[in-house]
């Protein structure tokens, strides 16, 4: 790169920024890398977008940001599981040398410098690192505190060892999106949440937010009590987790979107009347996951404001009778229980149409029903979309959608 040949672009940077922004959202890293090599003036602008989301955006994070993923952006799942990619990226932002390093691909050469960490707004690493596994663990330990402007963090580890207390120590960033998929991490993640003020979405795979490392009688408030009392994460609008996570995070907050994903040891029949106010605020609810969930009648009486509901698996078809008690329900999704291929609604066209018709008849505001009907491949689940017939018509026709289209803009 010859900086003397091009010190400034011919056009103002304000005209380049929308182009770089679009390249970033399209996850077109090679083009951004090339732009960073053109000249000094473009280098910093291109780098700021290149490092803003080095793995791209996942579908959930993109949905919360109101961003539509392109086909290129869909490569996110491959990137977040590429250990070599993570090592190269983390080495680039941790290194303080000015030696030229190779990043991501042969077309992406940049100068390594810790200031690049300040550009990072979104980072995701999925199930490729274990506790104290090097070099990834030591690189993460050094890099995360450097990402002072980080807003979106997705972390999933395997091995079951607590990670938050060590990895998040010294981190000063204020997140808006957190997906922490490390089990047995209640104490560390609970302490971290106490310092967060801007979080809008939290997804946790913990059993509880209580400090389970303490074996003494409880003489001080639990994390759950402190999370409610300190005013932290008061902007929280969306939560995903087990019953323990829900009971810790929903009270005193205006959460309107909830994905209730039961844990193996969740109590299936324990009452939820102490959460009646919080459940009454929900607009969107996804109910179920891998493990057995409570019967829908346990929560149905409290869902006064739910407009979009996903039932993940069904106990039985009689469970659908509970829907009539939801006064605001407009859209219903009936999905497979995670990991199961048993379709929750009969596939016989006549029987299925009768069931859907009865749902529209029993729920005054219900306008749309999406029902899973085929699981062809591991990541290819298909739904039938049914719309309420126009007044005076009894004809119903179903269109076909992929799961990602069903979930888009909802959860």
Query: How many angstroms does the end-to-end distance come to?
Result: 45 Å
Question: What structural category characterises the helix and strand content?
Answer: alpha/beta
> Number of helical segments?
14
The gyration radius over C-alpha positions equals 24 Å
Q: What amount of the residues lies in strands?
A: 15-25%
Oligomeric state as shown: single chain
| CATH domain fold name of the domain at 237-410 | Leucine-rich repeat, LRR (right-handed beta-alpha superhelix)
Order of helices and strands: HHHHHHEEEHEHEHEHEHEHEEEHEEEH
Tell me the CATH architecture of the domain at 237-410. Alpha-Beta Horseshoe
Helix content: 25-40%
InterPro entries: LRR_dom_sf
Protein name: F-box domain-containing protein
Can you describe this structure?
The structure is a single chain. This protein is of the alpha/beta class and 411 residues long. Among the domains are: 13-53, no CATH class; 237-410, Leucine-rich repeat, LRR (right-handed beta-alpha superhelix). It contains 14 helices and 14 strands. The protein has helices spanning 13-25, 29-36, 40-50, 59-65, 76-79, 83-94, 136-143, 164-167, 186-193, 223-229, 243-249, 276-279, 349-362, 403-407; strands at residues 100-102, 109-111, 122-126, 152-156, 177-181, 201-204, 238-241, 257-260, 284-287, 308-312, 331-335, 368-377, 380-387, 398-402. The strands form two sheets. The protein has a twelve-stranded mixed β-sheet. The protein has a two-stranded antiparallel sheet with strand order 1-2. Helix 11 (243-249) links the parallel strand 7 (238-241) and strand 8. Helix 1 packs parallel to helix 3, helix 2 (29-36) packs antiparallel against helix 3 (40-50) and helix 6 (83-94) crosses helix 7. It is globular, with a radius of gyration of 24 Å. It starts with 12 loop residues before the first helix and ends with a helix. The model is unreliable at 59-73, 97-112 and 210-221 (pLDDT under 50). This is F-box domain-containing protein. InterPro entries: LRR_dom_sf (IPR032675). It comes from Panaeolus cyanescens.
């Amino acid at each position: 790169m010859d900086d003397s040949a091009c010190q400034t672009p011919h056009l103002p940077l304000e005209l380049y920024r929308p182009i770089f922004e679009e390249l970033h959202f399209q996850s077109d890293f090679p083009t951004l890398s090339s732009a960073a090599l053109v000249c000094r003036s473009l280098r910093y602008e291109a780098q700021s977008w290149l490092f803003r989301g080095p793995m791209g955006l996942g579908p959930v994070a993109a949905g919360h940001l109101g961003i539509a993923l392109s086909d290129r952006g869909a490569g996110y799942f491959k990137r977040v599981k590429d250990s070599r990619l993570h090592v190269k990226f983390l080495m680039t932002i941790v290194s303080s040398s000015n030696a030229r390093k190779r990043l991501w691909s042969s077309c992406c050469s940049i100068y390594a410098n810790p200031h690049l960490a300040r550009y990072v707004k979104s980072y995701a690493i999925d199930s490729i690192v274990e506790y104290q596994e090097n070099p990834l663990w030591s690189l993460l330990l050094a890099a995360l505190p450097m990402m002072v402007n980080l807003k979106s963090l997705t972390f999933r580890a395997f091995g079951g060892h607590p990670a938050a207390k060590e990895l998040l120590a010294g981190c000063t960033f204020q997140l808006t999106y957190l997906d922490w998929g490390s089990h047995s991490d209640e104490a560390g993640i609970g302490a971290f949440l106490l310092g967060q003020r801007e979080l809008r979405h939290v997804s946790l795979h913990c059993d509880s937010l209580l400090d389970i490392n303490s074996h003494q009688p409880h003489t001080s408030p639990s994390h759950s009590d402190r999370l409610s009392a300190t005013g932290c994460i008061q902007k929280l609008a969306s939560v995903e987790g087990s019953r323990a996570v829900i009971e810790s995070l929903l009270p005193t907050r205006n959460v309107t979107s909830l994905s209730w994903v039961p844990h193996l040891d969740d109590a299936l029949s324990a009452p939820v009347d102490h959460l009646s106010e919080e459940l009454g605020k929900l607009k969107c609810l996804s109910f179920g996951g891998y493990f057995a969930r409570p019967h829908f009648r346990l929560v149905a009486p409290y869902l006064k404001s739910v407009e979009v509901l996903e039932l993940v698996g069904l106990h039985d078809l009689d469970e659908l009778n509970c829907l009539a008690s939801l006064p605001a329900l407009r859209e219903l999704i009936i999905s497979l229980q995670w990991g199961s291929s048993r379709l929750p609604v009969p596939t016989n066209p006549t029987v299925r149409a009768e069931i859907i018709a009865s749902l529209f008849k029993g729920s005054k505001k219900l306008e749309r029903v999406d029902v899973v009907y085929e699981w062809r491949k591991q990541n290819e689940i298909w739904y039938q979309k049914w719309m309420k017939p126009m007044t005076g018509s009894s004809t119903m026709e179903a269109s076909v959608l992929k799961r990602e289209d069903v979930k888009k803009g909802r959860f």
